[in-house]
Amino acid sequence: AQSVTQLDSQVPVFEEAPVELRCNYSSSVSVYLFWYVQYPNQGLQLLLKYLSGSTLVKGINGFEAEFNKSQTSFHLRKPSVHISDTAEYFCAVSGPLRGKLIFGQGTELSVKP
Amino acid sequence: DVKVTQSSRYLVKRTGEKVFLECVQDMDHENMFWYRQDPGLGLRLIYFSYDVKMKEKGDIPEGYSVSREKKERFSLILESASTNQTSMYLCASSLSLAPGTPGYNEQFFGPGTRLTVL
């Protein structure tokens, strides 16, 4: 069975500081990995995804993530955050079978001035 | 742009009422999903559908049912609402693609319906 663990429920950080949101997954089959962002009072939107190829994936708004198969991780990073990055971030995993995503518990990123 | 719309942003119902949550997508997606979102629990899948009139249970189907009579519309039904169903409900849709192809499993979400059951 597949599962996702987001290791931090809340991450407070100052504006312009770097940030890393951690995600570990568990799967016995080939995986596809996603990061979604949810701004206050909105639905989720895709930040980035890993399907195959380069293990360093770049997404929107300056975010990137690295797929590490040996450590079963897919951590999200940004070198310098803005106030507007304040949101909840979800890591998700899917396998080769139809359609379903398994989501982590979410990490609330709070960027302070 | 894919657009997924949900019939209400906020809804207040009473215990025992039958509640309908509607979701419509405009990009001819085959797959549609209903999730509930609760603090600290992330998103949990209630039901999903791969095609018209097809439905499959997700991880927490108890107390819910669904209907998909048309490809673009996926309805979530609470037969008899209870206070423990107070939550944020999110609908999503995606294309049915081969594993690994661009766009595979990329789900597009609606804005959510915050349901309060009193």
Provide a short characterization of the protein structure.
With 113 residues, chain A is an all-beta fold.
Topology, element by element:
The complex is a heterodimer of chains A (113) and B (118).
Chain A (H helix, E strand, L loop, with lengths): L2 E4 L3 E5 L4 E3 L1 E4 L5 E7 L5 E7 L5 E3 L5 E5 L4 E6 L8 E8 L7 E2 L3 E6 L1
Parallel strand pairs in A: 2-12
Antiparallel strand pairs in A: 1-4, 3-9, 5-6, 5-10, 7-8, 8-9, 10-11, 10-12
Chain B lengths: L3 E3 L3 E4 L5 E7 L5 E8 L3 E8 L6 E2 L6 E7 L2 E6 L8 E8 L13 E2 L3 E5 L1
Parallel strand pairs in B: 2-11
Antiparallel strand pairs in B: 1-3, 3-8, 4-5, 4-9, 5-6, 7-8, 9-10, 9-11
Describe it:
The complex is a heterodimer of chains A (113) and B (118). Chain A is mostly beta strands. Chain A has a single domain (3-112), classed as Sandwich (Immunoglobulin-like), CATH 2.60.40.10. Chain A is built from no helices and 12 strands. The radius of gyration of chain A is 13 Å and the shape is globular. The termini of chain B are far apart. Chain B has strands at residues 4-6, 10-13, 19-25, 31-38, 42-49, 56-57, 64-70, 73-78, 87-94, 108-109, 113-117. In chain B, the strands form 2 sheets. In chain B, strands 2, 4, 5, 6, 9, 10 and 11 form a 7-stranded mixed β-sheet that branches. A 4-stranded antiparallel β-sheet of chain B has the order 1-3-8-7, with no helix packed on it. Classes of the chains: A mainly beta (113), B mainly beta (118). The A-B interface holds A 6, 9, 30, 32, 34, 36, 41-46, 49, 51-52, 90, 94, 96, 98-101, 103-106 and B 4, 31, 33, 35, 40-45, 48, 50, 58, 90, 92, 94, 96, 99-102, 104-107, 109-112.
Computed Rg of chain B: 14 Å
Judged by helices, strands and strand pairing, the structural class of chain B is mainly beta
CATH topology of chain B: Immunoglobulin-like
Hey, which two chains have the biggest interface?
Answer: A-B, 26 and 29 residues
Number of domains of chain B: 1
* CATH topology-level fold name of chain A: Immunoglobulin-like
Oligomer: heterodimer
